[in-house]
C-alpha cells in the first residue's frame, strides 16, 4: 500500500476515535481512549486495506476502460461479499476478542444481527463511494490519454499533409521548366505560347495547393489545359481522351492528382508518331481512371517516386478509400477515388483552444461540485443513521433525508455525466466546424 493511503487511513482512524470517544463514550479515561483508538484503527485498516486490495486486483485484471460492464458487475459482487466478510471479522474481533461482551455463539445469534447488518450497510455506503471515485479517476485518465493521442495524431497528419502539398510546387515547376527548355531549342514560337499557358497553369497550382480536395470539374479543366501544353511539345505523338460522366463533375478528388499522373505517363513511356502514347481519362464506378498504353522507356536514372506516392499518401490522410493501380502487358491504369462529400476536417485555431479551455474549466467545476455533494452525502447520512439509532431506535426517520438527498445526488450525477450533455457537445462541434470553414 502507498504511503499516502496509509496516512489517509491514520487520519480517518484518529477522526473516528475522537468522534466516538468524545460523543458516545461515557468513561473518559486513557484506557477507554486507547480501546476506542484500537477499534478505530482495526475497522479503518481492515476495511480500507481489504477494499483497496480488491480494487487493485480488479484494476489489473479488469480495467474500467477495457471491460466496463464486467468490471461494474464484479465490483458490485466483490463489494458486497468482501464487506460482508470484513465487517463480520471486525465485529467478531471487537465484541468477542477485544471487549469480550459476547461469546461466539451469541455473536452469530440474531441478537447481533442488527449490529452486523448496520455496520455492513455503512461499509457498503463508504466503499461504494470509493469505487465510484476510482471509476471516475480511471475514466478521467483514459479520456485525457485519448485526447493527447488524438491531438498528436491530428498534428502528425496535418504536418505530413502539409509536407506532401509542399512537394507539388517545386516538382511541377521543375518539370515545366524542363519542357520549356526543350521547346526553346526546338521551336521558339511554341516556347512563347508554352510560357503563357504555363503561367495560367501555375496560377491554378498556387490557388489549389492549400486545399484538401477540389471538384472533378476543376481538376479536369486544369488537366485539359495541361494536356494542351503536352500536345504543344509532342504534337501527334501523344493523344488524350476525356470520358467523364456528368454526375461526377461535382464530386471531389485530390488537387493536382491528374497533373502528376499525366507527368508519370509521359516520363515512363516513349511516344512517337508511329507509336503514339494514348492517355485516357474516364469515369469508372466511383473512381476517376487514368489509363495509358504501355510503351515503357528505359530509365537512365531511378525515378524519385514523388508523383504516385504523393497521391496515395494524400488520399490515405483524407479517406479510407484506396488508390488502385492496375498493370498488364498492354496498359497501365490508376484509379482515383472520387468523393461525394468533403471530409469534416476541423482545424483547432487559437480562439478555439481558448474556448476548449473555458469548457474544460467549467467541466472541472461541475465535477468538483458533484464530488463535494457525494462526499457530504456519504459523511452526513451515516452520522444521521447513528444519531437516529442511538437516540430513538423505535422511530426510524433517517430514511427521509437518505432517500431525498440520495435522489438529489443521483440527479446531480446524471446531469454531470450523462443526460443533457450530448446535445451541447454536438452543438459546440457544429459551431467549431462552421467557424473552421470561414
From TrEMBL:
- Spell out the InterPro entries in the cross-references: 2TM_dom, Bact_2-comp_sensor_kinase, MFS_trans_sf, Sig_transdc_His_kin_internal
Q: Which residues form the 2TM domain?
A: 358-432
The question of whether Transmembrane is a record keyword is answered with: yes
Q: Which one Pfam family would you cite for this protein?
A: His_kinase
Report keywords, A-Z. Membrane, Transmembrane, Transmembrane helix
Instruction: List residues traversing the bilayer.
Output: 7-24, 30-51, 72-94, 114-135, 370-390, 396-419
> Signal transduction histidine kinase internal region domain: from which residue to which, for each copy?
159-237
Q: Does the keyword Repeat apply?
A: no
Identify the domain of life: Bacteria
Q: What is this protein called?
A: Pr2TM family membrane protein
Q: Which organism is it from?
A: Chryseobacterium gallinarum
Amino acid at each position: 500500500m502507498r504511503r499516502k493511503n496509509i496516512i489517509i487511513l491514520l487520519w480517518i482512524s484518529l477522526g473516528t476515535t475522537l468522534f466516538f470517544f468524545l460523543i458516545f463514550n461515557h468513561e473518559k479515561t486513557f484506557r477507554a481512549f486507547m480501546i476506542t483508538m484500537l477499534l478505530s484503527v482495526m475497522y479503518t485498516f481492515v476495511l480500507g486495506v481489504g477494499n483497496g486490495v480488491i480494487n487493485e486486483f480488479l484494476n489489473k485484471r479488469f480495467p474500467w476502460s477495457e471491460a466496463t460492464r464486467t468490471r461494474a458487475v464484479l465490483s458490485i459482487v466483490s463489494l458486497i461479499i468482501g464487506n460482508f466478510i470484513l465487517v463480520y471479522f471486525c465485529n467478531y474481533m471487537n465484541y468477542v476478542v477485544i471487549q469480550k461482551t459476547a461469546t461466539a455463539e451469541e455473536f452469530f445469534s440474531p441478537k447481533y444481527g442488527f449490529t452486523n447488518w448496520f455496520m455492513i450497510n455503512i461499509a457498503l455506503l463508504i466503499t461504494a463511494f470509493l469505487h465510484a471515485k476510482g471509476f471516475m479517476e480511471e475514466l478521467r485518465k483514459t479520456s485525457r490519454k485519448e485526447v493527447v493521442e488524438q491531438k498528436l495524431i491530428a498534428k502528425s497528419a496535418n504536418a505530413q499533409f502539409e509536407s506532401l502539398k509542399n512537394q507539388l510546387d517545386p516538382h511541377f515547376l521543375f518539370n515545366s521548366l524542363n519542357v520549356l527548355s526543350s521547346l526553346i531549342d526546338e521551336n521558339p514560337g511554341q516556347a512563347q505560347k508554352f510560357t503563357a499557358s504555363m503561367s495560367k497553369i501555375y496560377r491554378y497550382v498556387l490557388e489549389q495547393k492549400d486545399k484538401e480536395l477540389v471538384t472533378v470539374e476543376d481538376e479536369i479543366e486544369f488537366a485539359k489545359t495541361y494536356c494542351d501544353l503536352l500536345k504543344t511539345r509532342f504534337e501527334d505523338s501523344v493523344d488524350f481522351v476525356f470520358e467523364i460522366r456528368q454526375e461526377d463533375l461535382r464530386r471531389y478528388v485530390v488537387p493536382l492528382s491528374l497533373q502528376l499522373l499525366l507527368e508519370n505517363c509521359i516520363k515512363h513511356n516513349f511516344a512517337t508518331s508511329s507509336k503514339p502514347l494514348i492517355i485516357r481519362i474516364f469515369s469508372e464506378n466511383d473512381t476517376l481512371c487514368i489509363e495509358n498504353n504501355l510503351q515503357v522507356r528505359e530509365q537512365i536514372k531511378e525515378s524519385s517516386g514523388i508523383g504516385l506516392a504523393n497521391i496515395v499518401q494524400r488520399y490515405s490522410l483524407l479517406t479510407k478509400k484506396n488508390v488502385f493501380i492496375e498493370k498488364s502487358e498492354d496498359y497501365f491504369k490508376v484509379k482515383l477515388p472520387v468523393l461525394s462529400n468533403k471530409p469534416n476536417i476541423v482545424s483547432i485555431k487559437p480562439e478555439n483552444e481558448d474556448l476548449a479551455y473555458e469548457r474544460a474549466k467549467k467541466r472541472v467545476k461541475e465535477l468538483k461540485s458533484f464530488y463535494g455533494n457525494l462526499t457530504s452525502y456519504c459523511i452526513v447520512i451515516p452520522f444521521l443513521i447513528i444519531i437516529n439509532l442511538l437516540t430513538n431506535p423505535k422511530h426510524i426517520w433517517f430514511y427521509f433525508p437518505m432517500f431525498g438527498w440520495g435522489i438529489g445526488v443521483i440527479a446531480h450525477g446524471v446531469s454531470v455525466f450523462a443526460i443533457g450533455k450530448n446535445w451541447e457537445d454536438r452543438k459546440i462541434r457544429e459551431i467549431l466546424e462552421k467557424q473552421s470553414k470561414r
